[in-house]
Amino acid sequence: MATACKAGAILSLAWAALAWPAASAAADDVGAIVRVTGVTSPRLALYERASNDSKLKDLDKEGVKLPLDVFDTADEDRFLKVKIDGDSVWVKKSQVSVLRAISAGCLAQTAAPVLGGGIRGGNRGCGK
Predict the structure, then answer these.
(1) Of 85, 31, 81, 91, which Cα lies nearest the Cα of 56?
(2) Structure pTM?
(3) Is position 125 within any domain?
(4) CATH number where 79 lies
(5) Cβ atoms within 10 Å, residue 68
């Protein structure tokens, strides 16, 4: 019994070591911000440039017509360029909810069984 527990523990550690690089690589591959879908603060600050010292004005949360397309990002995605009432302005990402672009390629089949999740039909259209 003790031998079986040791073998199970070793197998679990080996699987975790093999899965770790793949998990961290997937976490690093975050999609681009494409749309503002919500305002998370009571007032949304609008900026002329992607900097804190260029504030134009504040809008009430209810006065923002969503969704807003994102045309550019700056300062490691801290500022997002959007159009509000026809004017190009910058908003802080910390004040909004965003939608990111995602893409998925075809998954390669492996000989060994791998625990994981997926999306039904995710491989549809992929060659064998």
Answers:
(1) 91
(2) 0.62
(3) no
(4) 2.30.30.40
(5) 22
